[in-house]
Every structure is written in C-alpha cells, then in structure tokens.
Amino acid sequence: MNMILRLEDWGDRHHPAWIDFIRIILGAFLFIKGFFLFEHSILITNFILTHNLEYLNFMTAQYFILINMGGGLLIASGMLTRFASLLNIPIIVIEAFFAGIPANTAFINSNFALSLIVLALLVLFLIYGSGTISVDNYLNTHEDS
Fold first, then answer.
1. What is the pLDDT of residue 107?
2. Buried b (16+ CB within 10 A) or exposed e, 2-39
3. pLDDT in the model for residue 55
4. Which residues of 119-142 are buried (b: 16+ CB within 10 A; e: fewer)?
5. pTM
6. Would you write out the chain's pLDDT as a tens digit for each of its 145 residues?
7. What is d(CA 7, CA 18) in angstroms, rounded to the nearest whole number?
8. How far apart are CA 80 and CA 85, in angstroms?
C-alpha cells in the first residue's frame, strides 16, 4: 500500500502539462468507442451467442458500454482519472484478446496494436493521474473555506 501511495505522489509531482492533452484525447476516444458499442450492442449479443461464451451475457456488454462512456468522460474531464483508468484496463485487455478473432469483430472497432496503445495510456494515467488541466485540480485549488 505504501508503494502505491509513493507511486501516486511521484506521478502528481512529475506531471508534464502536455500529457493532459493526451489524457483528453484518450477520454474522448473511449467515450466515442463506448457510444459505438452502444449503437452496435445487438452485434455484441450475437457474438456472445454464436461463440458459446456463456460467461458473458448482455449485462457484461452493458457494463463495457457504461465503463467506456463514463470512464471516457471522467478521463477527458480529469475527474477520478486513476479510478476510471483502473476500471477501463480489464475491458481493453479483453478487447485486445478478441481483436485477434477474425470472425466479424467489427463491433469492437479495434485491432491489437490500437488496444495495446490504449492500454499503455491507461496505465500511464493510472500512475500520473489527472494533472493540472483537470476538474480534480480545480476542485483541489478552489476549496471553499
């Protein structure tokens, strides 16, 4: 636990401003990806049914959509960035796994390399946090006493 707190403290002290713009782009990408998954949720359900993935169900697909959209908004705005990144990491790992399946995976809208880039960025923001251009920073610096 102490190591996690030291890593978060290090990330807060060594956060270049240009990384905030990458965080905003990543959040927007995740939100758009979640919206795309929402539009094609019937394809996700058909994929689950045709590949006999009993452990996945429609609720799991809805969870993916909710975390992509909600987490994307949180990451883009810089609010609870570490938490939103942590929730998105398992989803991106699963999407990277399914990106290798050739049979009609257009609903995932990703390939393996893109999933790895997004995964690396999520791990980066899990360490670095929100940064200076964020809602978290604004709330911390404008406390009402």
1. 47
2. eeeeeeeeebeeebeeebbeebbebbebbbebbebbbe
3. 63
4. bebbeebbebbbbeebebbeeeee
5. 0.78
6. 677 677 767 766 767 778 889 999 999 999 998 888 888 777 766 766 776 666 666 677 788 889 999 999 999 999 999 999 999 999 888 877 766 555 544 544 457 788 889 999 999 898 888 888 888 878 888 876 5
7. 20
8. 9
Residue type, 70: G
Give the separation between CA 46 and CA 48, rounded to whole angstroms: 5
* Residue from 87, 105, 124, 118 nearest 44 by CA: 105
Joined together, the tokens standing for residue 93 give 């790992």
Residue with tokens 């995976």: 105
124: which residues sit within 8 A by CB, 6+ positions away? 19
HSE value, Cβ hemisphere, 13 Å, CA-based, for 7: 10
Instruction: Give the total residue count for the chain.
Output: 145
